[in-house]
From TrEMBL:
PANTHER family per UniProt: ATP PHOSPHORIBOSYLTRANSFERASE (PTHR21403:SF8), ATP PHOSPHORIBOSYLTRANSFERASE ATP-PRTASE (PTHR21403)
PROSITE patterns, sorted: ATP_P_PHORIBOSYLTR
Gene this protein is translated from: hisG
CDD domains xrefs: PBP2_HisGL1
InterPro entries assigned: ATP-PRT_HisG_long, ATP_PRibTrfase_cat, ATP_PRibTrfase_CS, ATP_PRibTrfase_HisG, HisG_C, N-reg_PII-like_a/b, N-reg_PII/ATP_PRibTrfase_C
Annotated Histidine biosynthesis HisG C-terminal domain residues: 205-277
Name the record gives this protein: ATP phosphoribosyltransferase
Residues of the ATP phosphoribosyltransferase catalytic domain: 49-201
One GO BP: L-histidine biosynthetic process
Cofactor(s) needed for function: Mg(2+)
Pathway given in the UniProt record: Amino-acid biosynthesis; L-histidine biosynthesis; L-histidine from 5-phospho-alpha-D-ribose 1-diphosphate: step 1/9
A GO molecular-function descriptor: ATP binding
Chemical reaction(s) catalysed: 1-(5-phospho-beta-D-ribosyl)-ATP + diphosphate = 5-phospho-alpha-D-ribose 1-diphosphate + ATP
Keywords noted in UniProt: Amino-acid biosynthesis, ATP-binding, Cytoplasm, Glycosyltransferase, Histidine biosynthesis, Magnesium, Metal-binding, Nucleotide-binding, Transferase
């Protein structure tokens, strides 16, 4: 049975379970449950602190895990990224009171508060810098105000927490994070590739929609240039002479623009439907 680690709490917990549900796996119904067996799919899910997930996968006690890229880097364990799951996006950045430290070159020699000392130490080593890393558990935005540090290095999503604490970011992000599947390259038990394929199906289904429309046959080339699909659009005859029906997958983000362009070209009965899942 495949053994997979899932965040039990925090930002990544709900979306991770939802994505697995969308891929056809059973998930816990009680948020207090720590294990959920999915017999038909031959998978067992273990609900763990996201920070601990890389450890379990790195030691080989669990086959795969869902965690944040920043947490994997921070752990320093020998697990690697298998698939980017495209949720839980955030940057990991330096921040300080305005006008105090204005460039990332100036972080050397300072006191840096963070809950991710592994990420910070890696940056310092790569840039040949030395600094005093103050490891905190959370709410690190308070550390400067309370005199424990000169700057912080923390997860920034909307930036609202920083603004509230009177801090501003400086320099480029240390890294860009999102939720990822982690595993070990030397360890791919049965069922791993099927799980990855299912999750890839969910990713595609989330970023594409199915577009269908009717168009005059003489406009077909122009219309399909706007909707080339992934492989090729499906074209079917219509009862009405001189017209065809077209179906193609279109990126969700651009579908409204494509619909406008199709309408202006003369296409009609333009319909958009969600894709629940797919295998390409
Ligand atoms: N707004 C956010 N705040 C915190 N973490 C976020 C955010 N958006 C994405 N993440 C990601 O979530 C992971 C951190 O999850 P974790 O559960 O440890 O922290 P949390 O969501 O802040 O929960 P808690 O504060 O209860 O520990 C990291 O990979 C981080 O990049
Ligand atoms: O840029 P924002 O959208 O404001 O989000 C980022 C903030 O959210 C998280 O804190 P959380 O509320 O989880 O508290 P914690 O620091 O105790 O983990 C994170 O640690 C940042 O502080
Ligand atoms: Mg937090």
């Amino acid at each position: 049975m495949l053994r997979i680690a899932i965040p039990n709490k925090g930002t990544l917990s709900q979306p991770a379970s939802q994505m697995l549900r969308d891929a056809g796996y059973r998930q816990r119904t009680d948020p207090k449950d720590l294990i959920c067996r999915d017999e038909p799919n031959n998978v067992e899910f273990f609900y763990l602190r996201p920070r601990d997930i890389a450890t379990y996968v790195g030691t080989g006690d669990l086959d795969l895990g869902i965690t944040g890229r920043d947490l994997l880097v921070d752990s320093g364990v020998a697990a690697s990224e298998v698939l980017d799951l495209a949720f839980g996006g955030a940057t990991f950045r330096w921040a300080a009171p305005p006008g105090t430290i204005t460039s990332a070159d100036e972080v050397g020699g300072r006191r840096i508060a963070t809950a991710y000392p592994g990420v910070v130490e890696r940056y310092l080593a790569e840039h040949n810098l030395k600094a005093d890393v103050v490891r905190l558990d959370g709410a690190v935005e308070n550390a400067v105000r309370l005199g424990v540090a000169d700057l912080i290095a923390d997860v920034v999503e909307t930036g609202a927490t920083l603004r509230q604490a009177g801090l501003v970011t400086l320099g480029e992000p240390l890294l860009r994070s999102s939720a990822i599947i982690i595993g070990r390259p030397d360890h791919t038990p049965a069922g791993v590739s099927q799980l990855i394929r299912r999750l890839q199906g969910v990713l595609v289904a989330r970023s594409y929609v199915m577009l269908a429309y009717d168009v005059r046959a003489d406009l077909l080339e122009n219309a399909t240039a706007l909707t080339p699909g992934i492989e090729s659009p499906t074209v079917s005859p219509l009862h009405r002479e001189g017209w065809v029906a077209v179906q193609a997958m279109v990126q969700r983000a651009s579908v409204h623009q494509v619909m406008d362009e199709l309408y202006e070209l003369g296409a009609r009965a333009i319909l958009v439907t969600d894709i629940a899942n797919c295998r390409l």
